[in-house]
């Protein structure tokens, strides 16, 4: 389950960005390295590195093995300041824009590519719901392939938008694949417990 208490969107980095690029960027930005957390797949813990920007913000680099993406996220009480820091990062490191993430979803016709692009879209979604993203994820939740419907469930979880409640309830109650139905039920429970969705 991804962290639902984020204070910024997740800035999804392009595949060509590697550890040396991150290190070089954070050093040139003058951020203090605070440490990292080793991955622990058995406990669902992803690798994470953390920096202090010196102005009350912290920047986190996360290797999300579930969504198969690497991203930067900013922790700060002020979401505008967090977004400002993300824009600075995006100006220096190759990253997916929100538009790129959505457009990439429309180029995949085979289930594997469709599912991967859906997870990336969910992981990189903005903090507030966007109609175009909601429409595509809900449309994908009705796909004939169970792997695409499953990816749609997890894209909904990553966004943590209450706008997906109806689609998740439908999947939990009526999806023909028992695994997808279980995932949707689990997602509903987690999002309800976290306060994203009202019971």
UniProtKB/TrEMBL annotation:
Gene3D superfamilies: Leucine-rich Repeat Variant (1.25.10.10). This is HEAT repeat domain-containing protein.
């Amino acid at each position: 389950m991804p962290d639902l208490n984020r204070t910024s969107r997740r800035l999804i980095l392009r595949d060509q960005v590697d550890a040396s690029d991150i290190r070089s960027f954070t050093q040139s930005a003058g951020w203090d390295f605070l440490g990292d957390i080793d991955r622990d797949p058995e406990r669902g813990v992803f690798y994470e590195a953390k920096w202090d920007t010196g102005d009350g913000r912290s920047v986190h680099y996360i290797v999300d093995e579930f969504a198969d993406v690497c991203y930067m996220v900013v922790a700060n009480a002020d979401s505008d300041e967090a977004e400002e820091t993300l824009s600075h990062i995006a100006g220096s490191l190759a990253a997916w824009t929100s538009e790129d993430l959505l457009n990439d979803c429309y180029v995949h016709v085979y289930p594997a590519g469709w599912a991967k692009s859906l997870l990336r879209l969910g992981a990189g979604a903005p903090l507030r719901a966007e109609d175009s993203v909601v429409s595509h994820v809900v449309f994908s939740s009705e796909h004939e392939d169970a792997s695409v419907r499953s990816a749609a469930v997890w894209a909904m979880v990553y966004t943590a938008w209450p706008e997906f409640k109806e689609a998740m309830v439908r999947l939990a109650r009526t999806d023909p694949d028992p695994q997808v139905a279980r995932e949707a039920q689990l997602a509903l429970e987690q999002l309800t417990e976290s306060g994203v969705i009202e019971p």
